[in-house]
Fold this protein.
Amino acid sequence: MALLPTIGPYLLPRVAREIHKALPRLELQLYEYQTSTMLEKLNAGQLDLGILALPVNMDGLEARQLYEEPFALAVPAQHRLAQKKEVTVDDLKDETLLLLEDGHCLRDQALDVCSGVGVQEKQDFRATSLETLRQMVATGAGVTLLPELASRGDYGTLRDVVMRPFAEPRPHRYVGAIWRKTTARRPAIDAVCALIEKARAVGHNFAPLAPESRSCRMFCAGLCLLRWPLRSRLRPALAPAQTVTLVVQNAWVRKPAAGARAGGRVFHTEETRRRERCSSSV
């Protein structure tokens, strides 16, 4: 299963444990790709399921909408819009907009939202992750649009950054699942999709993680990291012979504390084209 870089770090901590609890015999391999690469790998049979923003080119593929995700506005703490409870798209007129680099569908979505109000894209800056955007907002370099999941809980409490919701009608994106029409793994795909939809329904569009769950949160700060407590939380729900493989672009993983047990994983750095493998049973 592959997820967009703007979805995976914020969705997985809310659903991964439930997936492994409900489907203990499922050996789930998680990848992170941009839309174009994900579609190529799906069509080539290298992936079974993609979680991404809809719509996309459906040639040979089928899709299922999982949830609707509103955007929120991130502004510097001293910004004029930080004083408002809600903002409108018209409020962004003449603002400097910080965006992801080319290839991220969220960049196109943000430009589409702001196309009619005369925002000024910062031409000398392109972020590779939402956390880079967030840090640049904190410096006062501009404002940016973030998906709702990336604006909740600890993500919404960064010092010097204020998150403001949009007034109705809120700009949003549709997050869905996509797979090959010829797949033989439809039952497993349907089960995973149903669990994601259930998590949304129970959490009212994914409520913030409870304090006791924060140790299993995946963060992205220019790079992505997977915190080791997540693995210890997943281990009881996995069958003894199972392993989990994670492939994350531009990733590094925090080393376990003394006495912690390492788990099987593969890390892939797109820029250097090298792999670092570290394996043992989960």
